[in-house]
Specification:
single chain; 163 residues; Tetrahydropterin Synthase, Chain A; GTP Cyclohydrolase I, Chain A, domain 1; 2 domains; 44% helix; Translation elongation factor EFTs/EF1B dimerisation domain-containing protein; Transl_elong_EFTs/EF1B_dimer
């Protein structure tokens, strides 16, 4: 590939996606983001729409059950600290934490997010109304996972001058 396009390309992520009884939806955005989604059923248009939604909204997983306990506990501890700083009574703080946790879960799960084409309905409600389920999705983004080296340009120039 290097000889053909003149770029040093390395594959960091690879996923095999297939389905026997469902439908595969794909969406590509500006040659930077690509999404594959597998739905039960045969609604190819819905699969493409959900793939487009995933590209735009970056959900971490399909449903709340797939969120790790560590992530939920970390977020809850942050919300507890923020709520305590507000100086409100404990019963109000508890309600604040429950509300913030629900909002967080809806933001990071596909089924909890408002559907991008119809914000009045969540993706979970949409797939339920169509008698289907999201079985799997994969989202790829160019440069994803690359750690950028944090250099200090001034120090680098000074080091070269001193040599």
């Amino acid at each position: 590939i290097v000889a053909k396009i003149g770029e040093n390309v390395s594959v960091r992520r690879l996923q095999n996606v297939s389905t026997e009884n469902g439908v595969l939806g794909a969406y590509k955005h500006d040659d930077r983001i690509a999404v594959l989604v597998v739905l039960s059923g045969k609604d190819a248009d819905l699969a493409k729409d959900i793939a487009m939604h995933i590209a735009a909204s970056k959900p971490e997983c399909i449903s709340e059950e797939q969120l790790s306990n560590e992530l939920l506990e970390r977020e809850k501890s942050i919300f507890i600290e923020q709520a305590k700083e507000s100086g409100k009574p404990d019963n109000i703080i508890e309600k604040m934490i429950v509300g913030r946790m629900k909002k967080f879960v809806n933001e990071v799960t596909l089924y909890g997010q408002a559907f991008i084409k119809d914000p009045d309905v969540s993706v979970g409600e949409l797939v339920k109304s169509k008698n289907t389920e999201v079985e799997l999705f994969v989202r790829f983004e160019v440069g994803e996972g690359i750690e950028k080296k944090d250099d200090n340009f001034v120090e680098e120039v000074m080091a070269q001058i001193q040599d």
